[in-house]
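Here's a chain:
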Amino acid sequence: MKFAILSDLHANRQAVEAVWAHAQAQGCEHTVLLGDFVDYGADPAWVMDFVMARHAEGASVVKGNHDDAIRHEGSHHMGGHVQASLAWTRTQLTPAHVAFVEALPLTIVKDDCLFAHANVHDPAHWGYLHGRLEATRSLFASHQPFVFCGHMHEPCLYHLSSTGKSGEFHPVDGTPIQLSPMRRWLTIPGSVGQPRDGNPAACYAVFDVSKAELTFHRVPYDHEAAARRVLEAGLPASLAQRLIDGS
């Protein structure tokens, strides 16, 4: 079975549509959505409808910190541009959208896989996996050989040997990676809706469970149209520029 692993959609309809079409062409049979469906982008209601439709079809869906901030604004320390886009986002969502997000879990286990938005060792506090040390903490905190997290907006893959030796590397687009059973693995697929590695193309990953084979993908989309939508919505111009620059 192939899993399509999508994270950090961030209300970017154009990116989500492009990635979803690409994932279907890859023959993916299960969808994993790693949170942060709203904020930053101009189409939060459309993206939430997409997420809810995938959930109804059986997708594994976890909550992100921006999703959580829709209801718990006082518990999140975010910058001024985020507060502005969050305030606008709240006006776009229906009570059904908010109730759905509120009920989402922080982590999901499916077979040999563990899914979370930020990390596994302390998922409720949204700490970033900035490097090997934090990734190793999450690998030690899990019992599954395959861990998938979002939150970082840049694709990366970490691994941990049976002797406790860890490593990391940055993947090449479209190149399958065999995940050895002698190691445990933590995948960050990157962001669908707001990549931050200098490449504006959307990020996601495909995991072939039967082969233990992981492939990271970059999907070009009309990021200029998405940026125009951000400006037309009256959101901060810096959010539009990020889509153009991939920064």
Summary: The chain has one domain: 2-245.
